[in-house]
Amino acid sequence: MAVQDLVDPFGRTIRDLRISVTDRCNFRCTYCMPEEGMQWVPRSEVLTFEEIERVARLFVERFGVDGIRLTGGEPTMRAHLPVLVSKLAALGVDMALTTNAATFRHHAHELREAGLRRVNISLDTLDREKFERMTRRDELVRVLDGIDAALEAGFAPVKINAVVQRGVNDDEIVALATFGRERGVEMRFIEFMPLDASGHWLHDDVVGQDEIVARLSEAFELDPVPARGAAPADRWRYGDADELAAKGRGGGAMVGVIPTVTKPFCGDCDRVRLTADGQFRTCLFETREFDVRDVLRSGGSDDDLAALIERAVGTKWAGHQIGQVTFVKPRRTMSQIGG
After folding, report:
1. DSSP label at 45?
2. With the C-alpha atoms ordered 242, 126, 213, 121, is the resulting torsion angle positive or negative?
3. Which of the four, 70, 154, 264, 291, has the lowest number of CB atoms within 10 Å?
């Protein structure tokens, strides 16, 4: 069967599939999950590796998707994850993983051998006490070791994601960028989004891209990189990038900002999402879900599955409308949707 582009009502072609493999996490980040009381999806409702592979294969072979990212929760909490990575790597697409890296030292080499090539690691602060307040876990040392493990295993690129919140960790923007330069990893700052479990998100808590770049520019010479297209981050190259490369730290020659709130990339968005319990979403902030698991487990054919996906993509909206009176927060938290 010939590849059929999956195009939404606004002419955007879907090329990126985000797959959450678990809603469980070993952290309790304040902007993502409540400290207690999470209701985990029963294991019987979580998609099996075979079901995930079937959906992924359909996206790749029928709809031409060329990028897959595994998320959670914390994806390394899913048992036997390298088995799934091997199945998906066999599809021949660009594969990546988002992790908090607290246990990555135990998984890095096996995941690399299974076919994983790129990894994004969450790190919001370099201060141990602040890290514990933000994640409700005293795991900074193990996360830093996980970053080292990713580099040692040969992942490239290794990118570090930091959610910036005013009055919480915005005083560390330059320090985090310096960390990326010294470790040879690309630091990316993410604007604080209204997906916090407590529901206390305020626009005033957002440190916007312009402010982040202004602070970085006070410490470093930055040269803008051409437009991002469908990529979520705007990027800048350090003025001494060649010197960093000569020192073996070329991975840290760039810094990026993901301006989800102040300069959303919705107009170029090419991604869709599959939750751990098999619900298909066309946007991180979407309020509707389409039940892929039901099709899989009721004996539906690939054509039935494709029809559901096409119908869902036909409802993809122009943008998330954060900051507008029409914005409605999703019922699920980030950990339940998939980062």
Report:
1. G
2. positive
3. 154
Query: What are the pLDDT digits (tens) for 49-107?
Result: 999 999 999 999 999 999 999 999 999 999 999 999 999 999 999 999 999 999 999 99
The C-alpha angle 297, 312, 268, rounded to 5 degrees, equals 130
Element (H or E) spanning 19, and its range? strand 16-20
CA distance 144 to 146: 5
- Cα–Cα dist 140/186, whole Å: 18
CATH of domain 16-337: 3.20.20.70
The three-state secondary structure class of 29 is coil
User: Has residue 37 got a pLDDT over 80?
Assistant: no
Q: Closest Cα partner for 160 from 224, 98, 90, 96?
A: 98
Indicate the pLDDT class of residue 325, thresholds 50, 70 and 90: very low
pLDDT band, very low/low/confident/very high, at 200 (cuts 50, 70, 90): low
**Cα–Cα distance between 4 and 107 in angstroms, integer?**
36
Task: Name the β-bridge partners of 279.
Answer: 291
Tokens of 169: 């960790």
Tell me the two tokens of residue 265. Answer: 């990339």
CA–CA gap between residue 297 and residue 291 (Å, rounded): 10
What is the 8-class DSSP label of residue 44? G
CA angle 201, 205, 209 (to 5 degrees): 120
Q: What span, in angstroms and rounded, lies between the C-alpha atoms of 17 and 192?
A: 23
